[in-house]
Amino acid sequence: MAYAYLFKYIIIGDTGVGKSCLLLQFTDKRFQPVHDLTIGVEFGARMITIDGKQIKLQIWDTAGQESFRSITRSYYRGAAGALLVYDITRRDTFNHLTTWLEDARQHSNSNMVIMLIGNKSDLESRREVKKEEGEAFAREHGLIFMETSAKTASNVEEAFINTAKEIYEKIQEGVFDINNEANGIKIGPQHPTTNSTLSGSQGGQHAGGGCC
Amino acid sequence: RHSALVTSFQRDPGWKLFGKIPPREGAIKDPTRIQKEYETKSGRAGPGNPTSPRQGVRKNLDFEPLSTTALILEDRPANLPAKPAEEALKHRQQYEEMVAQAKKRELKEAQKRKKQLEDRCKLEESIGTAAQIWNQEILPNWSALCTSRRVRDLWWQGLPPSVRGKVWSLAVGNELNITHELYSICLARAKEKWSSTSAHSLETEPEDPGSSDRESSLELIKLDISRTFPHLCIFQQGGPYHDVLHSILGAYTCYRPDVGYVQGMSFIAAVLILNLDTADAFIAFANLLNKPCQMAFFRVDHSLMLTYFAAFEVFFEENLPKLFAHFQKNNLTPDIYLIDWIFTLYSKSLPLDLACRVWDVFCRDNEEFLFRTGLGLLRLYQDVLTTMDFIHMAQFLTRLPENLPAEQLFQHIAAVHMTSRNRKWAQVLQALQKDPERGSPVLKR
């Protein structure tokens, strides 16, 4: 399928915060209570529509363990957006955000849009990190912020799509040089037809499906 | 909870999967006993072997079409005018055709079932025969025979599940001279740490940011055990092997605190647990991780990993030049798929029985076979991969098809040449290690 732009995303954050589950919810609209461990990197893809334009998201879902950082660092290259995820029921995953952010800033291009995500918002009774704390951290570091639940799908669409909107705006403002693929943006092989059958954010494609 | 862990470890779960050798049984079995065991297994399947093929299929063996008897040609109800003779004849013919076709189809299906059954019986028989050969001839004379042509050939065909653990143990060896006692000591130390951490975490506020790496590593083990082969439902909390897996990984972090727990290890330990008793599984685990390739990966020795990827690419280009060019064009670097494959020794990416077969030959041929298997996979799927773009290839390779054909894969692995300009794997690797500049450009930054 034709797309106007392709954005590369990277999902980062401590192990077990629900990175793969967020991706699965976004690409397949389902939740797996016990997800396989991610070793190295896994991938997802989905088409979304912003401002009437088809945008393909190519998502790199990375392993969270500290030991793997040196490997996953190289995957920031060429990412236009990053989802930095912590688990609202595990304080330590919030405490590690600063190191993740340093890593992300150091190894990506300076325009990369970072969305901070406090995941597992369905587990209110086990909450260890207040929503306000997440908001404060995001404000302080200039990130977008959202609490999500990969289990109930709450805010999952929004998290991925709002990130894309921000990137799209940056393109419109001319901040991104879209001809430089190191920015994580590729122009589609051809411009999309105007009367596309996909509309809004409903253009969900199965991760392995034959989209484009 | 602490004491529950101890007792469960001591009693060692009673049920065995994949033909695991029962504890404290000698290596050499009496042949009549093997025969008896084999008959029990293949003939009257006990509750531990519910999927025995003979059991379920035998009922349907005597072919009798069933659905055709339910097809009845009815006349029109009496309150409607009767069909004209011509139409009635036509309908009868159509009916007979339908019945004939249904019969044919059912006969075909029955024949197919029969064939499948025969194949499975044949397979079981060959496994039984192979087990006998391994137990009676090869294992008693291991050091003399293990490098012989005949044994190597037999080995390639896959080890019978009942001798698998034994052969793996022998092949991996015990260079580290780990004893059962040492395992007990390491485990005891790990348990001390667990109880002190859990006491510690009860005392302190959850807000304490100063949790040490060691503690988080223990936390991580807990988190990962539930994510190790979740579909098997035996390593999860309450499952029969949960505590065993926990024990082995914990003991290892005490045995090698410099390496610690690294994700991927839980899969390796789990596969070993399925084939060996706990202490022997630990010995094999520690020795396996001590192999150069595994050490390089689990210590995340970056430059050495790059060297392995570069060596892989040498053989990739040599064996599959077209696909290699396609990967290069799409910037698909080997780290993207090899990291998962090598870290877990394919146990996460391949169906478990197939992964065990890869492990069989990996125990025979060492690290070279891991990379050869990778090339075999690429060779097997070469045609479909060349039609894909980056994201589809990346997704395909990080989540291989579930119905991956085992025999075909091994044919493709066999067809991979592991020589490049007269140099073998070890030589290529060595040359690259001396000349790091020639390494793969990926991950270098």
UniProtKB/TrEMBL annotation, chain A:
Annotated Gly residues bias: 201-212
Coiled coil: none
Entry's Gene Ontology BP terms: protein transport; vesicle-mediated transport
Keywords: ER-Golgi transport, Golgi apparatus, GTP-binding, Lipoprotein, Membrane, Nucleotide-binding, Prenylation, Protein transport, Transport
GO cellular component labels: acrosomal vesicle; endoplasmic reticulum membrane; Golgi membrane
Membrane topology: Lipid-anchor
Region of interest (Disordered), ranges: 192-212
InterPro entries, per database record: P-loop_NTPase, Rab_GTPases_membrane_traffic, Small_GTP-bd, Small_GTPase
Keyword presence, Transport: yes
Keyword Membrane: yes
Localization in the cell: Cytoplasmic vesicle, Secretory vesicle, Acrosome; Endoplasmic reticulum membrane; Golgi apparatus membrane
Gene Ontology molecular-function annotations: GTP binding; GTPase activity
Family statement: Belongs to the small GTPase superfamily. Rab family.
NCBIfam families on file: small_GTP (TIGR00231)
Protein name, as recorded: Ras-related protein Rab-2A
Organism this protein belongs to: Takifugu bimaculatus
Lineage, broadest ranks: Eukaryota, Metazoa, Chordata, Craniata, Vertebrata
Automatic annotation (TrEMBL), chain B:
Biased amino acid composition, Basic and acidic residues: 22-42
SMART domains on file: TBC
CC annotations in GO: cytoplasmic vesicle; vacuole
Any GO MF annotation of the entry: small GTPase binding
Region (Disordered): 17-60
Domain Rab-GAP TBC stretches: 158-366
UniProt keyword Coiled coil, yes or no: yes
Pfam families, sorted: RabGAP-TBC
Record's keyword terms, sorted: Coiled coil
PROSITE patterns the UniProt entry points to: TBC_RABGAP
Keyword Acyltransferase: no
Coiled-coil region(s): 85-127
GO biological process, one term: vesicle-mediated transport
Protein name in the entry: TBC1 domain family member 14
Gene name of the record: tbc1d14
